Amino acid sequence: MTDETTPLTDAVPSGSGYVVLPPYQGPERVFPGGVSPRARRNKMRQFQCCMGITFIAIVFTALCLALVFSDSLGGADGGPSFFFVVNGSDSELAPNRPLPDEPAAEWALQQAALGHHDGAQAVSAGIKALGDREILEEGLQPNEVNTPSFRHYRSLSTNPEARKLARRGYVENQATIDIAKRFNYTKQPGRSNIGWGPKIVLPDPTVLRLECDFNARYRRSTGVCNNKQHPRTYGASMVPYRRMVSPDYADGIAAPRVSHHGRLPPARQVSLKIHRSSYETDSNFTVMLAVFGQFMDHDITATSLTTSQEGESIDCCVAATREQHPECYPVDILPDDPYYKQYNISCMNFVRSAPAPTGRFGPRMQLNQATAFIDASVVYGNLEQRQNQLRSFINGSLRMFVTDDGRQLLPISSNPADGCNRVQMTRLGKYCFESGDDRANENLLLTSMHLLWARHHNYLARQLQEQNPHWEDERLYQEARKILGAQMAHITYNEFLPVLLGKNISEAKGLLPAKHNLNAPDTYDPEVDPSIANCFAAAAFRFAHTLLPGLFNISRDNSTPEAIELHKMLFNPFSLWAEHGIDHALMTAANTPVMQVDRFFSLEVTQKLFEGTAEDRVPLCGLDLVSLNIQRGRDHGIPSYPVFRRHCRLPTVDTWEEMSQAIDNATLDSIRQIYESPQDVDVYTGALSEPPLDGAIFGPLLSCMVSDQFLRLKLGDSHWYERKMGPQKFTKAQLAEIYKTSLAAIICRNSDGITRVREHVMQRLRDGGNPHVDCQDLEGFHFNFEPWSEKQQPQDLHSAGISRGSTSVRVMSKANHQAHNVTLHIDKGI
Question: Which positions carry the signal peptide feature in this UniProt record (predicted)?
């Protein structure tokens, strides 16, 4: 079979594959003697006729193949297939290789003209700007507890280490702005930015010495030491998001994106006009798809929000007589807004994401507090201090709160200002919870997922101890953590991604587990940067918000209709305290169909997010999540929709006529009413407006952006669970058990009393049906721990190098097993 990537050379089979032949040079002798001119002309005409017929046959065959494959792999709109457009790009990109990131722009200022004195002066200006900001913060009042704005702030929690790094990033940004002003830098038309300049040396940096053992069996909590060439940055926590394409800032440095052709419509207007409410469900899939997606998303992304010096929230909708914080970027509410006008509200609170330090003059970057790897850091935490807080240090287990009736809940949070705990509930002895991620209480279903996996860790630790009674706490904890992370990754690639991308693209991109081929080659590539792309975190992977229905089915037996509104589940995990509370929450997610992935959103999302209640004594109106998502993309300098279409080798949408080939006419009409140019359309809006590809719930652009990120997470992780080399690998027998894992089996094993569940719990309907089955009939329910028994494996399982609390470990060379040290200097704070 040929396609657009077939080499334009001839090849013949050989014993070892194919041999490329030299270009056709013609016969050695033409028309040898003894052939008459007439016979010669007849043979020529016959040859020309055969060539013509052959050419027509080839063209006809190619057209048929194109039609067949466009139907099987193309979009529902009959447009070009994402799979073949990518393969047929000018760069001949292989389908199972990541897209190369757009090269960073060169420094726009004259390098020779920038002397040491200029750099020092700019840094001084940056430090002064930070000092002025902190003085301002001393006089500002934070958002009132339990208001929608405060709960939004709590849902984007920023840890103390991130706050220190953000201060450094702010100084770097202000220093770059100062340099640009003194050298009269002005942004050129289009998407140009100032580029990356010289290093910035800030005074009195705190230097942390990092030493890596690349033969360690277990991951480091912060994700460092995963890549030998880039041990501190590739995939680690507390590093800037990666840029798939260069940012588009209004000033080329840090100011949020603006229109290149007039003015950008306010984010709230885009939400109202394009992302209006709709109630079309996708009965093939359940809310469990969105719940697991959010849980897994929190494992790999955690954008740091700007806070005050002490970590308090910032109110950007202050009275006109008060000075506004420099990091404010509130969403404008128009006077005729159909919802907010009844509350006389003209401003939606929005604080910019914290700037990440880069150590160089250049454009603003944002900080990812999470590790990029699917390592279950959402369960354990991505800092050693957090992991230690959650451990019991007894038999490898996590701390749990045991109820009077013997059920295990997450450790309780008694902080009255955490945005979740409520006086009425604490009086009843019911609290919110602690977990590896500060966002665990954000909604009931998410909290249930956290509880499910924490229980699962303890189940794994108990079973490992039965197999190896002599193992100490540390060994049990680390081995259970390793298995759990592998199971979470397997569910992601075996159950979650094939739904989003479809089986065809998932298989073509190499994203399906190799469970039917335990001898598959190792896929690790140390050249691949697995760090999360900025556009993935700020736009593409926020697709799940369109899945959320307004009502959730909470009927215990599905015999009578019973539902709860979405906004009443936010920061409301208290039903988990009741008997079978986790069962009811999980079955709610498994029995409620999701909405379609499209441009439409529930009103619960667009006007009731974190809505207050009468008992809270705060405004009853909520926030608009769609407006916040669009505003976040502009805050991050995420370029427009056409830029990402070009980067993904998709047909361009640079004109309205071209865009009409990518989205339907009704959507295009809505977009044209408020956007002045296709070059202004936000990527979040454009990507959600595309019809899904065949067999997927994503359109072409979302398929490109999401598949590229998950391909990087697989190829760029030296601790990937399917690795075939190195001390990190599982044995074949262990990997065979990991491959049995399913989310349904995890639910059955760790719920209070669920005994029947769909085998594919993220789906309702699928080929061959998807009926409820007994938990005992699930293959993954019967996990065999014998492959982890040292009776079966007397060899040492590399338990060295995991001592708790150590800030350095030895580095062992694979080649000669002789110790050597890799030392890095990490600047933190100012």
Answer: none
- pLDDT tops 90 at residue 289: yes
Q: What is the pLDDT of residues 624-659, one digit of tens each?
A: 999 999 999 999 999 999 999 999 999 999 999 999
What are the E-state strand segments in 523-571?
A: 551-553, 563-565
H-helix or E-strand containing 773? strand 772-774
In this structure, the number of other CB atoms found within 10 A of the CB of residue 523 comes to 18
152, 230, 275, 298: which is the annotated catalytic residue? 298
Q: Are the CB atoms for 196 and 103 separated by under 8 Å?
A: no
Cβ proximity of 277 and 603 under 8 Å:
yes
Are 105 and 196 in contact by the 8 Å Cβ rule? The answer is: yes
Pairing of strands 239-240, 408-409: unpaired
The answer on whether 545 is annotated among ligand-binding residues is yes
- Of the candidates 582, 561, 555, 512, the one whose C-alpha atom is nearest the C-alpha of residue 291 is 582
Using only the alpha carbons of the chain, give its radius of gyration.
29
- pLDDT at residue 262, rounded to an integer: 87
Between CA 753 and CA 740 the distance in angstroms is 22
Look up 298 and say whether it is catalytic: yes
pLDDT digits (tens, 9 = 90+) for 591-606: 999 988 999 999 999 9
Per-residue pLDDT, averaged over 782-799, amounts to 74
C-alpha span between 462 and 450 (Å, rounded): 19
Selected from 1.10.510.10, 1.20.120.1760, 3.40.1010.10, 1.10.640.10, the CATH number assigned to the domain covering 377-541+702-788 reads 1.10.640.10
Give the confidence band of 827 by pLDDT, cuts at 50, 70, 90: very low
| Token pair listed for 59 | 């063209």
Residue 643: count other Cβ atoms within 10 Å of its Cβ: 21
* Spatial contact of 352 and 331, defined as CB atoms under 8 Å apart: no
Q: Are 146 and 614 in contact (CB under 8 A)?
A: no
pLDDT (tens digit per residue) in 676-703: 999 999 999 999 999 999 999 999 999 9
Q: Per residue in 351-369, is it b (16+ CB within 10 Å) or e — as a string?
A: bbbbbbbbeebbbbbbbbb
DSSP string, 50-73: HHHHHHHHHHHHHHHHHHHHHHHH
* CB burial of residue 524 (10 Å; 0-12, 13-18, 19+): buried
Compute the distance between CA of residue 546 and CA of residue 275 in angstroms, rounded to an integer: 9
Question: DSSP of 312-333, one letter per residue?
Answer: -----S--TTSPPPTTB-PEE-
Strands 823-828, 819-820: pairing is: unpaired
Burial of 787 (0-12, 13-18, 19+ CB in 10 A): middle
User: Running DSSP on this structure, what letter comes out for residue 561?
Assistant: -
Q: How is residue 494 annotated by DSSP?
A: I
Q: Could you read off the pLDDT of 543-576 as tens digits, one per residue?
A: 999 999 888 887 765 555 678 888 889 999 999 9
**The one-letter amino acid at 516:** H
Token representation of residue 509: 């991109």
**Phi then psi dihedrals of residue 65, to 5 deg:** -60, -40
Q: List the structure tokens of 211.
A: 């030493």
End-to-end CA distance of the chain: give it in Å, rounded.
59
Give the pLDDT confidence of 64-119 residue by residue, as tens digits.
444 433 443 333 333 334 433 433 344 467 888 999 999 988 898 876 677 888 89
Q: Is residue 331 within 8 Å of residue 625, measured between CB atoms?
A: no
